Amino acid sequence: MNINILSDHQLALLSQLISDSHTIVICCHVNADGDAIGSSLGWAEYLRSQGKDPVVIVPDMYPDFLHWLPNTDKIIRYDKHKEQGDLLFKTADLICCLDFNHPSRIDEMAESMTKAKAPKVLIDHHLKPEVESVLTVSCPEMSSTSEMVFRIVWQLGGFEAMGKHFATPIYCGMMTDTGGFTYNSTRPEIFFIISQLLTKGIDKDKIFRNVYNNYSEDRLRLTGYLMYQKLRVDSSRHAAYFTLTREEMRRFHFTKGDAEGIVNMPLQIKGLKLSISLREDTEKDKMIWVSLRSVDDFPCNLVAERFFNGGGHLNASGGRLYCTMDEAEKIVKEAFLAFTDTLK
Ligand code: 5GP
Ligand code: MN
Question: Would you say the CB of residue 173 lies under 6 angstroms from ligand 1?
Fold first, then answer.
């Protein structure tokens, strides 16, 4: 099966950039998810096999359910080690930007990344890439950046030498960006890739359990609470939303990542097409994180762009609002009115 994604020119350029470099910084988006971390760790593992010195830098904390992945102990958090991060960007020979399409997606790290002199390579599956780079590999049709990293390593001829420390994070990233291969994952290439990853001895069932069955009791009860008490369903508009306040987060001993995935649950309701969650920031007032999920061809990314200062994929998007929760709920209702007419 031909799974190559780089043109001959891109392949030659990437090989050259890698061979010309020693210290390589890999960075990914704020609130890193399984794909951001998985693709970064997988790419770092490949670069290490080439005798390079890769460093993964993330803007801030990432969820507990990813900490079991191999080599996470080497990841540098920019919010904790700003000076070290700035120095790494400044002195890197090459910077690889993974799983984001715009500098604003790496928050505080953006200035240091954009100012850095080193050539940049962007590998991403979001729409409209806008990161200045010498090489942009953009494939919005791919399930995940992890899938792209697999294909690139395959095309570079590096897969044979890879082991579990490559296969595990790549599988994890593909799995989390497709909701455990339940959406955006119908192309046969994905299952060819999985079959290849399995030859490295990964335990895919364990990876699933490590990610999805690894929550605290509080998180499960929070899920129940939100679905029972907080979910607002507008059946006539095939849409639903729920809110999560700081007070509720305290009550359920919320830790980062606890909200992950809950926004998908309302889509279990028959006929529902759009689900939105509104979550207060744990520190900043008037700062609300928005997650959107949709099914079929309903474009939640357009809703995110128009109403929530965000964007993303057709069926999974995000954004943020700078207002109170009451105001945010009004905006959600406006969005329902504006976008769900076509569904009636
Ligand atoms: P989540 O709901 O998990 O935070 O985000 C879902 C998807 O939307 C992710 O693939 C993420 O990359 C994208 N996304 C989240 N927030 C933003 C945003 O502010 N802007 C854009 N363009 N995409 C976002
Ligand atoms: Mn992704």
Answer: no
